[in-house]
Prior knowledge:
Blueprint: E1 10-15, H1 24-38, E2 42-47, E3 59-62, H2 80-83, H3 86-96, H4 102-114, E4 123-127, H5 132-137, E5 143-146, H6 151-160, H7 165-174, H8 178-187, E6 191-193, H9 196-206, E7 213-215, E8 237-240, H10 251-261, E9 268-271, H11 280-288, E10 294-296, H12 302-311, E11 314-317, H13 326-333, E12 338-341, H14 346-350, E13 355-357, H15 362-373, H16 376-393, H17 396-414
Parallel strand pairs: 1-2, 1-4, 2-3, 4-5, 5-6, 6-7, 8-9, 8-11, 9-10, 11-12, 12-13
Amino acid sequence: MPENQGQPLRICMISYRSNPHSGGQGVYIRNLAKALCELGHQVDVLAGPPDPLLEGGPRLIPVETLDLYNPQALFRTPSLQELRDPVNLMEWLSVSTMGYPEPFTFGFRAVRHLKERLQDYDILHDNQSLSYGIGKLSARIPTVATIHHPMTVDRKLAIRSVRSPWKKFKHLRWYSFIGMQKRVSRRLPRIITVSEFSKQDIAREYAIPASRFSVVPNGISTELFYPMPQIPREPGRLIVTNSADMPLKGLYHLLQALHKVSRTHPVRLTVIGKAKENGGIEKLIRKLEISHLIDFTGRISHEQFVREYARASIAVVPSLYEGFGLPVGEAMATATPVISTTGGALPEVAGDAALLVPPGNAQALADAIRTLLDNPAKREQLGAAGYARVHQHFTWKKAAEKTVETYREVIRDYR
């Protein structure tokens, strides 16, 4: 159904953790909610901390949580008053025993808020919490969920990255919420995912028929990510946005590649964010003796973020797996030439507008970096091709239109 033929919808989006600056889920909820409002729909966002900084029409309904993953008070001890709430107590006990309970407990909080308000909405859209609470609500209101990629992939890579049986157990415990997500997702009538690759992986890992998926690619915020030709690109300057110690993000392999390239070319790497203190990334930097080649930005404003892209000669996305690949799209939107791995759905985003290498291969990354450093014309060509590809294929308006088509199908089937 063409979007302009339908009545405006009343939409409730649910997002248990929605950082608007990092992590695909927070970026997704902020931009999709805005685009849905721009199409004329009413959107409420039921969200836990941090503040998703909504703009352009959606209404934020903040949900109070223990916020145990707040970097300013990481794993704080709750007060006795807070622990009188059974949901808070469950969350604290799980965190204290190395679990990650937020998707589970946020579902209960969503039920508390919505159980007497479901008549205010036409559809419920869950952003990958896939909690038992969402499963319960889906019996009373048309419900869809977005799954960005199967968390089973994160779990496999995390377990593979360590040798100690104790550390393997800790990863298994952390990802224990996956069983819940599998069970709940099988009960939902429709799953939205962001790429064909993610669709295939989720269908296989979660045992969901492929016919129950709608593929809706993410948009790229071209009003936030754009070229700045007035800032000259620095020769040999690389940029990467994956500062996490998570094996999934592949920074480990990029650092090894940087070490190799530095032997033959003058090169520097800007890392947006910072490494975990005494974590695996810091240890590798010390081992390779490359700290003088790396600039960690720490937390910076979005304006500074775009300026860092403008300074860079090459953007590198070394992820072992991505369900979509926002860093590729954001770099292309700034007309920065991109080197990306073929991990997960990254080739779907990059197309022929990036230099692609196998995931987890430091030598291939090093060879690709040298190739582009030695070829200014190729860098120029890739930058222009990436910019054109983003504006042609990846806008949040298109994502919102396809999402509404899915909403209407689910509502019709429910009735």
